[in-house]
């Protein structure tokens, strides 16, 4: 029996990117407790799972309500980027949806600048090891989508790398967001909407046809349509999957039935992510550990998943060229208890 701590240390040594992480839902529990105490808000108690989307979004909004100043946002982001180092995450892309603050912390520009400040504060050379994905919620409309797109372009040189789309995908359409995604794509930013989390496979197909994404957050519903899996593979669209989050939000019937390994083995580029570190109760290292334990993935599989995350990151430089040889060495060394091919 291999010591679990040894396995986790080895998994933390694998260079990888976290491409799907939401700022407020991923704050440290200690920070959440401290902010709740400071502002006289009930503490965040994370449940075992979320039977409905609204049970999840209600708790997410309570996390957001803990962010009561731009300094709070700056601090949460700085802590996430700092924690990433210990997890072996060499690049982090953080989702932020400025309009959901509803003007509570001032203009949307202020939120973006505070989050960018937080991301830079942990880097010794002044450059963040990652970037921001500015998102729009599906309940908002065309005007807000275009405002976010223009904001993303404006802050592209400062560390905004992509535009996202979040929220309940069962209650809204696509038309309001097409123009905004066209705008950011033309400006050289990434297009990384959520899709195929709660919604059906047809949402993933429509997302692909109408938004022409570089990556899709989740996308796991796509696994239920063989033709769609083939299209995802052919077009090389990376799915930024979060297994524990999908189980806890009941996007899949059970962990055993999660299609992560099926998508990987079908040749679809997949990355592994925590999505909501606090609310799902997992880090990216937990997710790598989970796919070994539950899906029998090998060290070489993990190396390929980490390589996917670096290849599809919206970084300026080529992260895979920079870290590829370290991944190869990691696979050759093999995680304890697992041979490189086993
Ligand atoms: Zn997400």
Account of the 3D structure:
The chain is of the alpha/beta class and about 350 residues long. It has one domain: Metal-dependent hydrolases (TIM Barrel). Helices cover about 50% and strands about 15% of the residues. It contains 15 helices and nine strands. The chain has helices at about 5-15, 30-40, 55-65, 70-85, 110-120, 140-155, 180-185, 200-210, 225-235, 245-250, 260-265, 275-280, 285-295, 300-310, 320-335, and strands spanning about 15-20, 90-95, 130-135, 160-165, 190, 195, 215-220, 240, 270. A five-stranded parallel beta sheet has the order 1-2-3-4-5. A four-stranded parallel beta sheet has the order 6-7-8-9. Helix 4 packs parallel to helix 5, helix 6 (about 140-155) runs parallel beside helix 7 and helix 14 packs antiparallel against helix 15 (about 320-335). The longest helix is centred in the N-terminal third of the chain and has 17 residues, at about 70-85. The radius of gyration is 19 Å and the shape is globular. The protein starts with a helix and ends in a 9-residue tail after the last helix. The model is unreliable at about 335-340 (pLDDT under 50). The protein binds zinc ion. Zinc ion (ZN) binds next to strand 1. Zinc ion binds near residues 20, 22, 194 and 275.
């Amino acid at each position: 029996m291999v010591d679990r701590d040894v396995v986790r240390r080895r998994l933390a040594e694998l260079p990888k990117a976290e491409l799907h992480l939401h700022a407020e839902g991923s704050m440290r529990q200690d920070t959440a407790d401290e902010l709740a105490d400071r502002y006289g808000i009930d503490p965040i108690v994370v449940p075992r799972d979320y039977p409905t989307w609204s049970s999840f979004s209600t708790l997410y909004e309570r996390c957001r309500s803990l962010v009561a100043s731009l300094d709070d946002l700056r601090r949460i982001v700085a802590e996430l980027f700092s924690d990433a180092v210990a997890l072996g995450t060499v690049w982090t892309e953080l989702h932020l949806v400025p309009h959901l603050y509803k003007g509570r912390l001032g203009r949307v520009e202020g939120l973006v600048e505070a989050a960018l400040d937080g991301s830079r504060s942990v880097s010794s050379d002044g450059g963040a090891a990652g970037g921001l994905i500015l998102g729009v919620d599906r309940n908002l409309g065309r005007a807000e989508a275009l405002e976010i797109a223009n904001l993303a372009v404006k802050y592209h040189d400062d560390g905004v790398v992509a535009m996202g789309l979040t929220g309940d995908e069962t209650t809204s359409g696509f038309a309001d967001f097409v123009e905004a995604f066209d705008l950011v794509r033309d400006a050289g930013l990434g297009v990384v909407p959520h899709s195929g989390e709660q919604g059906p496979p047809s949402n993933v197909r429509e997302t692909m046809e109408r938004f022409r994404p570089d990556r899709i957050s989740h996308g796991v519903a796509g696994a239920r349509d063989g033709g769609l899996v083939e299209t995802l593979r052919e077009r090389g669209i990376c799915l930024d999957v979060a297994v524990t989050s999908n189980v806890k939000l009941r996007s899949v019937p059970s962990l055993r039935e999660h299609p992560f390994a099926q998508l990987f083995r079908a040749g679809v580029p997949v990355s592994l992510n925590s999505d909501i570190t606090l609310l799902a109760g997992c880090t990216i290292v937990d997710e790598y550990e989970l796919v070994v334990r539950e899906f029998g993935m090998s060290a070489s599989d993990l190396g390929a998943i980490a390589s996917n995350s670096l290849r599809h990151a919206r970084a300026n430089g080529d992260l895979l060229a920079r870290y590829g040889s370290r991944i190869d060495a990691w696979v050759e060394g093999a995680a304890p208890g697992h041979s490189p091919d086993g």
